[in-house]
Amino acid sequence: MCNLYTVRKSAAEVAAHFGVDAPAAFNMPEETLPGYPGMVVREAEGVLVLQSMVWGFPRPMKSKKTGLPIKPKPVNNIADLTNFMWRGIAPKPQWRCLIPVTGFAEAEGEKGSMTRTWFHVKDEPIFAWAGMWRISDEWGPVYSGLMTNANDAIAPVHNRMPVLLHRDDYARWLHGSLDDVIAFRDRIFPPEAIEMNRTAELWSRRKATGVANAVDN
Question: pTM for the complete prediction?
Fold first, then answer.
């Protein structure tokens, strides 16, 4: 699953890519982590807007010791469209969004010393991940990204990957039917379009941000 991605471009550059107006004051994290703010492009009253939301739908949690409610867990990847968290919004275009990305990472290596392996789309400094959003009681507007089986470029590192969209896919994703959503999920993104960069960056350095979210391997 994807638990880390980047947007290493300015708000103005992202806005220009998607053909939206750049907000006057818009703080964008360079690295986006589950449970923290990220940016999405969605349609509002027939116009595309760039908006900050929390990455992950809140899943209610209870303490194993006391049985009392504790801080919700951010569910930041959409795997099963029939799950109760998604089935009510998946057929409805008003809950679709585009997640701007410049690169996404997977953990690779031995447990305890995993490193970050980055993936990018060749010749696309900015690309889009197919997302869905809603308004939650806990965190306000939240979003999550649709996942699919990994193509041959990503399979050596992980068996899943984000549903990536070409530029001419954007309108169909935002306005299409549930059949279109399923078609995007089942489509194999061209492996030759993916560029992989293995690094020595430790995955575990994410803990310094205070996000306690396990890597899903």
Answer: 0.91
Element (H, E) at 172: helix 170-175
Q: What are the boundaries of each domain within the chain? A: 5-61+69-208
Indicate the class that CATH gives domain 5-61+69-208: alpha beta
Which neighbouring-strand residues pair with 116?
107
Query: How far, in Å, are 32, 56, 100, 211 from residue 136 at the CA level?
Result: 19, 10, 21, 20
Q: Confidence band (pLDDT; 50, 70, 90) for 214?
A: very low
pLDDT for 71-127, tens place per residue?
A: 899 999 999 999 999 999 999 999 999 999 999 999 999 988 999 999 999 999 999
When pLDDT is cut at 50, 70 and 90, the band that residue 209 belongs to is very low
CA distances from 102 to 17, 34, 86 (A): 12, 17, 25
φ, ψ of residue 192 to 5 degrees: the values are -70, -15
The C-alpha atoms of residue 49 and residue 28 are separated, in whole angstroms, by 15
Backbone φ/ψ region at 159: left (φ over 0), alpha (ψ -120 to 50), beta:
alpha
Other Cβ atoms closer than 10 A to 93: 15
Mean pLDDT of 140-147: 98
Residue 54, Cβ neighbours under 10 Å: how many?
A: 22
What is 2-34 written as a DSSP string? ---EE--S-HHHHHHHHT-PPPSS----SEE-T
The residue assigned the tokens 């999920």 is 185
